[in-house]
Automatic annotation (TrEMBL):
Coiled coil: none annotated. It is an enzyme of class 2 (transferase). The keyword Glycoprotein does not apply. This is Molybdopterin synthase catalytic subunit. Pathway: Cofactor biosynthesis; molybdopterin biosynthesis. Heterotetramer of 2 MoaD subunits and 2 MoaE subunits. Also stable as homodimer. The enzyme changes between these two forms during catalysis. InterPro entries: MoaE_sf, Mopterin_biosynth_MoaE. Keywords: Molybdenum cofactor biosynthesis, Transferase. The lineage of its organism: Bacteria, Pseudomonadati, Planctomycetota, Planctomycetia, Pirellulales. It catalyses: 2 [molybdopterin-synthase sulfur-carrier protein]-C-terminal-Gly-aminoethanethioate + cyclic pyranopterin phosphate + H2O = molybdopterin + 2 [molybdopterin-synthase sulfur-carrier protein]-C-terminal Gly-Gly + 2 H(+). Its EC number is 2.8.1.12.
Amino acid sequence: MIELTDAPIDAERIRQAVSSPNCGAIVLFLGTTRQFTDAKETLTLSYSAYAPMAQSQMEKLAAQAQARWPVEKCAIAHRLGEVPIGEASVAVAVSSPHRRDAFEAASWLMDRLKDLVPVWKKEHWASGGTDWVHPGLTLPPDENGVQ
């Protein structure tokens, strides 16, 4: 299950998507909107993406994780649009026979997703300002989500 969605991320649905009787470990990571980034207060985050490329990149990352570790199933969901404080903007889940492989694969997937997938985060500050953020890319997207 790989998806971009405007709806809130359902953690239980993500967990069920990777559940398997062959696996003794499921790692589910949720990235949520925090209220403070350093000393700046966040009101909300908004995400935009170049959807065809983002979907393709997430599918490639899931396949790479399954080739690297004994991961039976992967799920990645990234929310688009506005994400209020406390809600999940991203979910990564993997199932594996053993916990170490599941933890390593999930951590690797999250790191690679942030570096490679064309999803941009716009921070809306309580002070009234905004900032675009993407670790691997430096230019903000235009109105169509393209750099």
